[in-house]
Structures are given as C-alpha cells and as structure tokens.
Amino acid sequence: MRSSPASASPPSSAPTSTPTNSAAANPTPRPSAPPSPPWAWTPPTSWFVGDKPWRDTAAAHAGGVGTAVVVRGGSADDAEIDAALTGPPERRPAHVIDEMHDLLGLWAGAPLPLTPSTT
After folding, report:
1. Backbone phi, then psi, for 50, in 5-degree steps?
2. What is the pTM assigned to this prediction?
3. Residues 45-68: pLDDT tens digits?
4. Which residues of 31-53 are buried (b: 16+ CB within 10 A; e: fewer)?
5. What is the rounded distance in angstroms from the CA atom of residue 26 to the CA atom of residue 42?
C-alpha cells in the first residue's frame, strides 16, 4: 500500500474554510486574561475544608489557600488529625472541627469573601 506524501494537497472536493479568529486575521494576537470576577476572593482569602490532613491540607497550602480546615469523622482517624496539628507545616490545618456546621462559628469573625472587587 502506498502512502501519500505529507505535502499532498487535499482533494478538490474537500471542504475548505477560512478561520475567523486566527493569527492571520489578527496580526498582533495577545493572550487575554480572564475577566476579573465581581468579588474579591483570592486563594489567600479562601478557605479549604477537607478530612485528610496528609492530602487536603497539603493541597490547600500548596495552592496558597489562606485557611485550611479539617473535619473529624471522615477518612482520617482522630489520631492522624491530632498528629497533623503538631506535624509538618504543610499538613497543619488552621482549624479542626467536629461537624460541617461548625464552620459557621469560624466564619462569624472572618471577612466576607464576596465583597465587591476594587480592581
């Protein structure tokens, strides 16, 4: 079986199209940043809630999330959670709670994350 060369032209019956948003149509293409959301939440002002300090808290810290919270009663037993409180900083949560509704008490004194953006 013969293969056609890579530079062969498409058959004349092949549909052709002209891209409407290509570098050829825009001589100075620039990547554009996504629009800013109407709220001012950023990783440092965000909260991350999980039940595994070895994974969830570590991911929150690696992502620059400001507050990591671990909830008891999930995958990690109490001994693992207690060890994380004094363990390596990347696995140390800011708070440990017993139930998800305990977040409301933590958030009572926290700044609102949905404030209008000034940028």
Report:
1. -150, 180
2. 0.59
3. 889 999 999 999 999 999 999 999
4. eeeeeeeeebeeeebebbbbbbb
5. 33
